[in-house]
Amino acid sequence: MTAIQFDSHGVKTFIKEHEYEELKPQLAMAQKLLFEKKGAGSDYTDWVNWASNFDQQELQEIQRLAKKVQQQSKVLVVIGIGGSYLGAKMALDFMKSPWYNDLLEDGQTKIYFAGNNLSAMALQQLLRVIGDQDFSVNVISKSGQTTEAALSFRFFKQALEERYGREGAVDRIIATTDQKKGTLREEADTAGYETLVVPDGIGGRFSVLTAVGLLPMAVAGIDIEKVLAGAAAGEENYRSANFSSNAALQYAASRRILYDKGYTTEILASWEPSLQYFAEWWKQLMGESEGKNLKGIYPSSANYSTDLHSFGQYIQEGRRDLFETVVRVDEVASDLDVPKTPENSDGLAYLEGKTLDQVNQTAADGVAIAHIDGGVPNLAVRIAKQDERTLGELIYFFEMSVAISAYLFGINPFNQPGVEAYKTAMFALLEKPGYESESQLYKERLKNI
Amino acid sequence: MTAIQFDSHGVKTFIKEHEYEELKPQLAMAQKLLFEKKGAGSDYTDWVNWASNFDQQELQEIQRLAKKVQQQSKVLVVIGIGGSYLGAKMALDFMKSPWYNDLLEDGQTKIYFAGNNLSAMALQQLLRVIGDQDFSVNVISKSGQTTEAALSFRFFKQALEERYGREGAVDRIIATTDQKKGTLREEADTAGYETLVVPDGIGGRFSVLTAVGLLPMAVAGIDIEKVLAGAAAGEENYRSANFSSNAALQYAASRRILYDKGYTTEILASWEPSLQYFAEWWKQLMGESEGKNLKGIYPSSANYSTDLHSFGQYIQEGRRDLFETVVRVDEVASDLDVPKTPENSDGLAYLEGKTLDQVNQTAADGVAIAHIDGGVPNLAVRIAKQDERTLGELIYFFEMSVAISAYLFGINPFNQPGVEAYKTAMFALLEKPGYESESQLYKERLKNI
């Protein structure tokens, strides 16, 4: 049983059946590289069978800490950037609500994300939002040296110490970091923080189902065992060599074929605001895995129907190098009947008797047709509902797809060499110890741009 | 005095001086078309001198209604989509905070946006968030027939009537709509709602400085006279024919030259979370104005530094068809010193003595260099600060730039023919009266995709 239906009907006029057929040997090869750990970056493929082998002790430890936070604090501040931020944020929105913090019952714990930017204004405002509510901190960084997270942690540690004293602060910090090494590990061991582990064999953008994503989810009351069970089901479904039953292979193949035809930008779209951050998570997963060696599909996103009244005009009639993948939810958790009015002054009487979700679903159908007619290949990833099991499988589906896809591109899906370029420039300009030789060079450069 | 510094140093290696020189006659022609109302879509160019001619009575009316809402309600629900949503949302974030509703003093009015999607789950959650707080509604739709807004209005009208009775509901509705015609105008006049006007000669994406955007801004306590004064200053600065002093011409020219060299996607980036929705507003302005006739620059956005740890890898090393325009704020409203720690366990001691904003600014400098080195042309729009005057000028700057830019492309900047395509498909599938003949056709189509 799969929780996902991959629907490629909307590319029928763009991709012929034989094209898939001809790509199958390459797909099989990509799978082989991945499963036999012979592809580039194979040290970072532990996510492949992570969920089905999840350590029970680790699970209990996550749940113990989640309970501790829930009992201790009104607010959890999750400090992290990239994969240490987007996975948990996406899961919270998907399972709960973009208004998660506004919809809590008394006694539940709010969750705010920090350390994902360097803005002083944003940090100052967040500190004001938290105000005098009791709070705990989950700082997430494998090395401890990610500038954004480490800096942000300094501020929140200071705030904790001012509020609760040194010992009280230590009791309210959970460090999710490397098991043995790194500055955060050392600090945690010295100070006596609670800790969870960022494993070695899984890169940041694949880490949502490790303690990195699971602790914030558990604090929010998401059943993380079910999420892991969904991902484990994904392992069964998307590791198969059978093209016709393996949606991850179909998706990877469709993307590769479209790219070669000049469809170089992919829009991940959805019709639920609660999936907006799913697209943000996806953009990191795809863009950081594939965008290298001057190639790869550019990851973009759209939120319907809002963006149909924005750059939807471009999607319909702009340059024809776009394709879209729409995540569709077939059964929404809640629904509303279109209200009846005696006057029909707005001309919407024809919608009475329908539910709001029926209108939303029909709009989605209409947009698919309109976009296909406009020359935009349309893929759909259909899920029955937004529940834990589906979330886990969905995560695995996209992770598996991008790994296969990158191997089809001849790219290492698991490194991110380009991220170093900006760090080097930034560290040189900030005169970080060790960057003395670059420092002068970049300062000169800055004068001349 | 301009509030904006346009910085094209980061395209020096991509555009030679003579290329600008050679484009000047076309720029002059585009300006002429716009100012003499001889270009395509010239019926929709009233925004060009709107702010400097702003009707004083209208201004007083907006301020009277803002005060009424402030006195009457804890919550204002702004119902609108596209230009009837993004302008006000962008202004609120820019001038106040993305956490605007969480940072209010007692007695101030929260603002929520609705009617910008068709999601039943989102609407139901929003109704729960509002709960039993007193609320008023500002419904914004020129025709009254925008499906999203009209549907949403039915729900909130129902909620108002249940809470306050028929008359009480009427007293809490402000309709921003056409002056004379349309279903919402008729309903408003019949029922006796307060009303404000969506003018004829200004399209939705250019409407932020009309009552559409100004009422929500005024309710939030933004000084709208200053915003208008900023836009009026923009009129002086960006209507000049002098290329070297007119940043809007420089920006339009840079975009056009880059596009012709294959840089077909533009990323609007910023380093402040409070500018995230500025980019969303910009995406509509640019994408809906330029994305037609199978051409135009694809509008994308990035929030730094968060997205540097996401698809930043792609920006640095993916396909070289990207350029970026970074909105930089030179003086942030608030700042924080990097906290000192005796241990330096995180290795950040080299940042002590700096402010957080200095780190942010230096990171921005470093990223500009890294991206230029990576082959990404880099434009910067620098503002001194996030204040009303700057906001007004910034809005005018981008509006003028895209009008000129679209005329350089030979495109009508002011229509949006592609938006009809999805509406037709949707209305046909929903069996809207008048779409009987299309209905069967689209239902057949749906079966076959």
TrEMBL record, chains A, B:
Task: Give a Gene Ontology cellular component term annotated to this protein.
Answer: cytosol
- SUPFAM superfamilies per the record? SIS domain
**Might you name a Gene Ontology BP term for this protein?**
glycolytic process
Give the residues annotated as active site. E288 (proton donor), K423
Q: Give the matching InterPro entries.
A: G6P_Isomerase (IPR001672), Phosphoglucose_isomerase_CS (IPR018189), SIS_dom_sf (IPR046348), SIS_PGI_1 (IPR035476), SIS_PGI_2 (IPR035482)
The reaction(s) annotated as catalysed by this protein in its Swiss-Prot or TrEMBL entry are:
alpha-D-glucose 6-phosphate = beta-D-fructose 6-phosphate
Per the record, a Pfam family? Answer: PGI
Tell me the GO molecular function terms: carbohydrate derivative binding; glucose-6-phosphate isomerase activity; monosaccharide binding
Q: What is its EC number?
A: 5.3.1.9
Q: What is its main location?
A: cytoplasm
Q: Does the keyword RNA-binding apply?
A: no
| Class in the EC hierarchy, top level | isomerase
Q: What does this protein do?
A: Catalyzes the reversible isomerization of glucose-6-phosphate to fructose-6-phosphate.
Annotated HAMAP family: G6P_isomerase
Protein's recorded name: Glucose-6-phosphate isomerase
Recorded source organism is Fructobacillus durionis
Q: What gene name is listed for this protein?
A: pgi
